[in-house]
Amino acid sequence: MEKISRFKLFDTLSKKMVWGFIILITVGTILLSLPAATNEPQGTSFINTVFTATSATCITGLTVVNTAEHWSLFGQIVILVLSEIGALGYMTFAVLLFNIIRRNLDLSTQLMVKESLNLENLSDTKSVMKYVVGLSALFQVGGACLIAVDFIPRYGWKWGLYTSVYHAVMSFCNAGFDVFGNSLMGFQDDSYLLIVTIILIIGGGLGFLVWRDLLLYHERKRLSLNSKLTLVTTGTLFVVGFVLLLVTEKDLTLLPKGTSWFNRTVNTLFLSVTPRTAGLVTLPTNDLQAGSIFLLMILMFVGGTPGSTAGGIKTTTFGVLMLQSIAQIRGKKDVEFSRRRFSQNNISRALLLIFLASVVIVIATLILTQTEHIPKGFGLEYIVFEVLSAFGTVGLSLGLTPHLTVIGKLVIMLLMFIGRVGIFTSLYSLSKRQTKFNQIRYPEENILIG
Prior knowledge:
Helices cover 64% and strands 1% of the residues. The chain is mainly α and 450 residues long. Strands 1-2 form a two-stranded antiparallel ribbon.
């Protein structure tokens, strides 16, 4: 009975979370449909409006129209607000409202927050919420101030301050929208801005639970297993990605001649960080080497950390899978890390997540191969890259997004939604679970594998 009630509870919470994001996308679509939201006299088509609202809410950054040129100041602010709410989770703002009116959180709200932030214990809800709000404000306000030092002398107080805030929010939220028209390609030689942006991207993608562990380390003198695995996996992917990109893009011919060694290194660092669901670029993605594009696909698939502003299968899932593979190769029964062993439930969940993600990506790719046109000079990577970018809520593209058909836009929107809400949450909300569990266990038998 306890197991049944858990499934029923998770089903209910999943449906609430899914509907919460759907309502948010609907509100965003209505606001972006207003004449004041666009600079175009003919307005924006319904499908493009829904696509933009979905991309913003799911903090992806894929765009079918140029954000800087098409949307007015009001429209850009709507996109900014949708990205902020989508990144922190609408439940965060619900809790803020409860605090403002000085009401205690009921059990249902606490459970929703627990699920949306991937918390282990219900008792962590209030304390973690303080860190979510506090850290988000610290990173974004601090980032905006640091960027303003660069932008205000360039653009003046009004535009400089606006672009500083916009860029800081989008970088921390890993959203990928920009108000410059070509992402950050005009700032290839601005190492200061790129370094600040890298810090904001990593800050948002590392996860609030990990940041809480790091900030409380001086008191506890220890890190949780989740934080240790996250930091090790993130650091490994960052270093390996950077080194491999130094090899695949060793010439960096996309940068102007005479670019300093330091600036070339910073641009390569940025290129290794942005596919972790940030979506901002300093180099045209479709002009990268084949090896670099393939590496970006892998990094987009992995994504960031659970409970963060990032998407993908998450670093912990990837870490568990790697450790499981190493243990199997060594003939070890237990999967161990930092003098702890993972539960079989953890391992099974990680394997199931990767399998389901692969199935979703394969199906979406097959559909798009039938509906979208692949230009000369490109192959299947033109579509696979877009699919992985949408699923990982990254926002990078080889150029397909503005040319998507209506069916293509619907597929990409669904991928962005699944990537942000979570594949388990999405499937649980759609499926009808059985309430009776079969207690019969059949005899065990092995089959040939490999």
